[in-house]
Amino acid sequence: MFPAEKALSEAIQKRGEQDLLRKLSLTEKRIDFTSNDYLGFARSEELYKMIEEKTAKNAKRVGSGGSRLLSGNSKEAEELESFLAAFYNSPAALVFNSGYDANVGLFSSIAKKGDTILYDELVHASIHDGIRLSRADTFAFRHNDVVHLEERLNNSSVNIFVAVESIYSMDGDLAPLKEISELCKKHNANLLVDEAHATGVFGKGLAQQQKIESSVFARVHTFGKALGCHGAVVLGSTTLKEYLVNYARSFIYTTALPLHSLISIECAHQLLEKSVNIQNNLVENISYFKQKINGNKKWLDSPSAIQSMIIPGNSEVKNLCKKLQDADMDVRPILSPTVPKGKERIRVCLHSYNTKEEIDLLFKTIAKA
Question: Is the pLDDT of residue 17 over 90?
Fold first, then answer.
């Protein structure tokens, strides 16, 4: 046994005793209420054929061969960034290998010692990790609380960065982006918006839908959710792009995406442009789901594809999920400490391909349980 393994084993055992042990499992062919494949692009035959045809015409190698700053840059990567900048109405775009890489690279590099990062208390772990790697002063503000944010802004100076998500991944609620944008203008702060769960669900993202994209310092769009592929992009000024190329370590020190991934990203965006009917199916399913909730206060108020029912206690929520899984529905428990103790929940992700009968079955099974 290696010297470190005793400590690792003890940590695993402790987590097991707390009923918090995570394990990998294969996704069986249950009704999908858990994936982030909101529009069904990850299983889309049309998208698969688009990618396959374009790859067959253009792919000459398997891998990129190195980082973008060494041997991994390509005409296709630069053309994709120009395409994404135009698609999302941004001066410039820089592709990262994942949403995690994008947030870590962005937040760890933009703020210096003496700067301030203010962040919504419910932002994603990738933002937290990026913030921890920066040397800035950092303060949370209460979730979606613009009054508390302004109190924080009044006590901040030098370069101020405000970090929010447009749709929050656990509660499914929307950030008050217009109000936050106005506050940032008033206090000369820089707004950063993670659009991971809005991309494709709310068109090209909430900021663009609300026509405030020009007021956002940086937007992060990820492609592994509604767009069904992989990778991410940071959108902002040409200055921001050049800065990240020089200072974002998760961009500089990693092998660039292969051509197949670049093609997949472009094809997914092209399909999104002509998939209004698929997006409308998702909107209809969200509306039907909200009708079925019928004022039940255990369900959080969410207008998005993410719907969460609070079931306090890790054991209790795991038991309910087991009953749903036994009824052939893929629903997963969200346990503390991922969410605060007492806020444990089932998190239901809705998709364009879910049927009303499947949604009815979900509510009938919960009612019986």
Answer: no
What is the number of other CB atoms lying within 10 angstroms of the CB of residue 338? 15
CA atoms within 13 A on the CB side of 120: 24
- Cβ atoms of 363 and 302 within 8 Å: the answer is no
Q: Position 291: which residue type?
A: Q
The string of pLDDT tens digits covering residues 153-175 is: 999 878 999 999 999 999 999 99
Q: What kind and span of H or E run contains 187?
A: none
The alpha-carbon radius of gyration of the chain (Å, integer) is: 21
pLDDT of 29 reads: 85
Q: Rounded to whole angstroms, how far apart are CA atoms 194 and 311?
A: 27
- The alpha carbon of 56 is separated from its chain's Cα centroid by a whole number of angstroms, namely 30
pTM for the whole thing? 0.94
Q: Determine contact, residues 288/356, Cβ cutoff 8 Å.
A: yes
Token reading at 169: 């991944």
Closest of 139, 206, 214 to residue 175, by C-alpha: 206
**SS3 (DSSP) at 356:** helix
Residue 171 has a pLDDT of 95
pLDDT of residue 75: 95
Token pair belonging to 332: 């997963």
DSSP state of 335: -
What is the end-to-end Cα distance of the chain in Å, rounded?
45
- Alpha-carbon distances, residue 168 vs 2, 106, 193, 232 (angstroms): 41, 19, 11, 17
The distance from CA 17 to its chain's CA centroid, rounded to whole angstroms, is 31
